[in-house]
Amino acid sequence: MSPLIMLMTAQAASLAATNYTVDVPMRAPVSAPNWADEFDGAQIDRETWRFDTARNAQGWYNHELQYYADARPENVRIEGGALVIKARHETLPAQSDWGGQAYTSAKLVSRKAYGPGFYEIRAKLPCARGTWPAIWLLPAGGSWPDEGEIDLMEMVGWQAEVVHATLHTAAFNHRLGTQRGAERRVPTSCSEFHRYQLDWGADAITIGVDDRAYMRVRNDQPGGKAAWPFTRPYNLILNLAIGGDWGGAKGVDDAALPQLMAVDYVRHWRGAPQR
């Protein structure tokens, strides 16, 4: 979810992109991953994940409406061998960093940054209007969009069962209307787990679901870093936002809350071959 605060709601549709669509096979390596969290313990591993609460007081990017809690069980927990992030319609005025939000949720960021390779995240998504679940990667430091952003999976509840993959760079981003991405309908994305996949190489970034790629962007444009900053490790982010310029473009269905995103596992293989 790109940190562009001033994007108007009327421009919400421009956050999606369909200009780099492909339909080709992709598959995770058969070897053991170099890093994984199977979420099979009793508690979230605080040495693996941190909770991002940095903008609670002043409000989150894109005019999102949620307060992100820190390890609050009502919003995030391990349940049935999966990470559960739950968005709720409630206020938390007793929290010192509460910014007046009427919704709560959680945002987890991997403490370690991981670089190119193959990523697979098995997840089940919420579909209620106003929800905005995301699985994405962002580097530490620098300014957006210069350092790049990889949106492995986003879905907005008013367009249920359509997942989006998008890349943002200084030269190619939604602020300029030049972002690169694609979308795919996944009819059971809210009732079943699916495997969301990223094959990140030096020459191309490919994103798909269940061993089928639907987006591929090649490193074939001039501009150096402005076109292709994807050369250093990024942190993996899991979050469920409420509202915002894109997620809330058609309002929030309060009656449908709470809603949750469940993540069965996250896995990363270094140096996976490009297809």
Give a concise summary.
The protein is mainly β and 275 residues long. The protein has strands spanning 21-25, 35-37, 49-51, 66-68, 76-79, 82-89, 103-105, 107-110, 117-124, 131-138, 149-154, 162-168, 180-185, 194-200, 204-209, 212-218, 235-242, 259-270.
Please provide a written account of the structure.
This protein is an all-beta fold and 275 residues long. It is built from no helices and 18 strands. The protein has strands spanning 21-25, 35-37, 49-51, 66-68, 76-79, 82-89, 103-105, 107-110, 117-124, 131-138, 149-154, 162-168, 180-185, 194-200, 204-209, 212-218, 235-242, 259-270. A hairpin with a 2-residue loop joins strand 5 and strand 6. The protein is globular, with a radius of gyration of 17 Å.
Outline the secondary-structure elements:
Layout: E1 21-25, E2 35-37, E3 49-51, E4 66-68, E5 76-79, E6 82-89, E7 103-105, E8 107-110, E9 117-124, E10 131-138, E11 149-154, E12 162-168, E13 180-185, E14 194-200, E15 204-209, E16 212-218, E17 235-242, E18 259-270
Parallel strand pairs: 4-7
Antiparallel strand pairs: 1-16, 2-18, 3-8, 5-6, 6-7, 6-18, 8-17, 9-14, 9-18, 10-11, 10-17, 11-12, 12-13, 14-15, 15-16
